[in-house]
Amino acid sequence: MVGKAQDAEDTGAPCCRWVGCGVLVPAPPLCYSRESSLFPGLPMSSFRTIQVVNVRWFNATAWYGVELARLLNAAGHESRVVALEGTDTFRKAQELGLEPLAPPLNAKNPLAFPGLIRDMRRLVKDFRPDVVNCHRGESFLFWGALKEAGGYALVRTRGDQRLPKGNWPNRMLHTKVADAVIATNSVMARYVAGPMGVPPQRLHTILGGVDTRRFRFDPEGRAAVRARYGFADGDCVVGLLGRFDLVKGQKETIEAIRRLVAEGLPVRLLLIGFSTATLQEEVEAWIREAGMEKHVTITGRVGDVAACLSALDVGVIASLWSETIARAALEIMACGRPLVSTSVGVMPDLLPAEALAAPGDVDALTALLRRAVVDAAWRGDLARTCSERIATLRDEDFLQQTLAVYAEACRRRRSSL
């Protein structure tokens, strides 16, 4: 829960908390200030939302939903996160003070469904949300079934990698039951508008946002990080920010850097990441196989991410697929770094075509990085383009765009009664 300002006012709104076995007990009333502590000047609204983020890993989809809940609460909109107990997403929501709830939304046993629906109905009755926003689809049907009795607007955010199934029940959920559908990239938006048949007045594209107070160019941090890892003034440091996973393209990037080093270019690679699906030991083996031990550095987990990004001369997103929500890309761009990428997911929405390469095409990635390393003028132009693009992708933009969708969804919901 966000901190209370001195002039905070008790809303008197009943709330609840899951305590084992789906039991709900009353929680203290929520309090929030009359003015947003994060975005001063924003007026308080009556929106109350439930963000359904039943994602096991704290991936980009989970980040999108949890970050949205944080922004909403900071701006005076009471919001609850519903997550899966014991997961990375649940723990992250707890770290942010969001007091997540944990009904068993991913239950697969039909015998568990009546109890789940009963608990969901109790949550809706106690919290009285204006909007329920589903960031995953497992419980979307149940939230749709409760919509009439609960009186809330239902929003489905499509930020996952897989395109939705185009069967009749799923099309009905998206076109008739949901009051609004949010796509996190234009690829998803085109699919939802086409095969899924969601009408344009219900379809919105919101790419997310980045905290530009935290992620900004840090000259002192740049100098400190470059000294820490032994980068010389003449080195062109290329950086890849992302968990260690085959999908993130670390192996392809190492090979591209090997080719540039073989050409005699003064290039270094900084891998800002750590073990997940791929262990660091495996990444280190790729580096040894390429003979790049002197040219590639792994940071592991770091607390000064913005400083590490500021230390870069070029950022790269080398993903083979995914990136439907590009958190790393936004953070790199917010730090004023020029970014090149593969043309996956949301990346064509963020970067010009000349800064993109086909996913998995090491030749194309090498050519793109070569241009970024040797052509300082192009690199500078790209940095300015990235900075201009990020000016409309701040946290406050993310929040305001979402609130506009919620307002329209609520108007649509009321008009249908």
Summed up:
The chain is α/β, with parallel strands linked by helices and 417 residues long.
What gap, in angstroms, lies between the N and C termini?
Answer: 33 Å
Strands side by side in the biggest sheet: 6-5-7-8-9-10
Number of helices: 15
| Class from secondary-structure proportions | alpha/beta
Based on Cα principal axes, name the global outline.
Answer: elongated
Main pleated-sheet profile:
6 strands, parallel
| Cα-based radius of gyration, to the nearest Å | 23 Å
| Strand residues, percent | 15-25%
Percent of residues in helices: 40-55%
Task: List the uncertain runs.
Answer: 1-39
Mean pLDDT over all positions:
89
What is the number of beta strands?
Answer: 16
Key terms:
disordered N terminus, 6-stranded parallel sheet, alpha/beta, elongated, 417 residues, 15% strand
What can you see in these coordinates?
The chain contains 15 helices and 16 strands. With 417 residues, it is of the alpha/beta class. A 6-stranded parallel β-sheet has the order 6-5-7-8-9-10, with helices on both faces. Strands 13-12-11-14-15-16 form a 6-stranded parallel β-sheet, with helices on both faces. Helix 9 links the parallel strand 12 and strand 13. Helix 8 packs across helix 13. It is elongated. The N terminus is likely disordered.
